[in-house]
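Input (structure):
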């Protein structure tokens, strides 16, 4: 149904099979400027062939649930390699401790409404 609704506006819906996670947004975020951060072990990352990719390891998969806001990427605390890779793509990062929310399977995208 969504596919039909968005087709009129020139968008394409591409189904993505995910594994081992709640939903795609948990392990994949658009950072801006044609760049996506992702944990590729959870889905077929080749669907993003037109984008620059920040690939994070399974150990840092939770870091892919981040937010690009006002020119910075807000990243959950405790993922230094992910922050380093994001920085190499030209993005400033800001680390926040959301460990209590993670205990309930919450992430930065779950906690945010961006206007």
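Output (sequence):
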């Amino acid at each position: 149904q969504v596919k039909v609704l968005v087709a009129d506006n020139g968008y394409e819906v591409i189904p993505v099979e995910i594994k081992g996670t709640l939903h795609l947004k948990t392990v994949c975020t658009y950072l801006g400027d044609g760049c996506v951060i992702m944990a590729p072990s959870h889905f077929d990352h080749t669907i993003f062939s037109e984008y620059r990719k920040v690939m994070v390891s399974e150990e840092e998969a939770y870091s892919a649930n981040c937010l690009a806001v006002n020119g910075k990427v807000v990243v959950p605390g405790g993922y230094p390699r992910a922050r380093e890779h994001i920085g190499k793509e030209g993005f400033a990062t800001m680390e926040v401790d959301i460990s209590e929310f993670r205990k309930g399977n919450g992430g930065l995208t779950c906690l945010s409404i961006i206007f």
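Notes: Residues 21 and 42 are 7 Å apart (CA to CA). The two ends are 26 Å apart (CA to CA).
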